[in-house]
Amino acid sequence: MSFQEKSTWISLATVFLIYGWYFGTTATELGGNVADIDYQSTMLFTVVAVVVVSVILNVVVVFADPDASDTSDERDRSINRFGEYVGGYVLAAGALLGLGLAMAEIEQFWIANAILLGLVLSELTSGVVKVVAYRRGF
After folding, report:
1. Separation CA 122–CA 82 (nearest Å)
2. Half-sphere exposure of 60 toward its Cβ, with a 13 Å CA cutoff?
3. Mean pLDDT across 14-24
4. What is the 8-class DSSP label of residue 30?
5. Domain with 20 in it
6. I need a labelling partner for 13 at 20 to 30 A (CA). Which of 5, 46, 75, 134 fits?
7. Taking the CB of residue 15, how many other CB atoms lie within 10 A of it?
8. Is the residue at 45 inside a domain?
9. Residue 112 belongs to a domain
């Protein structure tokens, strides 16, 4: 398994688990008025946690096999490009959803979470496309 594929698996796992925790935690607070939910600090913590955990796990992988991180061929670059291309469409849809909610003057809670959900779905889509390309061929 190449370093790029390992990095993709790390990204998938951290995004799924940490953002899953965020959305699960936030969903439990939806019983009352959403204006009363203090989601900003939790959202910020979650975004920072995804970045920090991903970096730490990638560093661990590099230290475990230092030579593997230096090798990247055309196939790896093509798979990465294709995954990011597909994920970009999902990100654009999420941005349009957030824009639509803002234009409809929906509460900020829903706008912020719709944009974050678009980002999360984009990362998950990109990662799944990359893993499928690695496993089934590109």
Report:
1. 13
2. 8
3. 95
4. T
5. 3-133
6. 75
7. 21
8. yes
9. yes
For residues 9 and 25, the answer to whether their CB atoms sit within 8 Å is no
The residue to which tokens 């089934």 are assigned: 136
Residue 121 maps to a domain? yes
Q: What is the pLDDT of residues 49-61, one digit of tens each?
A: 999 999 999 999 8
Contact 131, 5 (CB under 8 A): yes
Query: What is the rounded distance in angstroms from the CA atom of residue 100 to the CA atom of residue 80?
Result: 30
What's this model's pTM, rounded to 2 decimal places? 0.87
Chain centroid, CA 114 distance in Å: 13
Which pLDDT does position 83 carry in this prediction? 94
4, 72 Cβ separation under 8 angstroms: yes
Q: Give yes or no for residue 5 having a pLDDT over 90.
A: no
Q: Please report the pLDDT score of residue 70 as a whole number.
A: 65
Q: Is the dihedral of CA 118, 119, 120, 121 positive or negative?
A: positive
Residue 4's pLDDT band (boundaries 50, 70, 90)? Answer: confident
Q: How many domains does the chain have?
A: 1
Cβ pair 11, 127 in contact under 8 A: yes
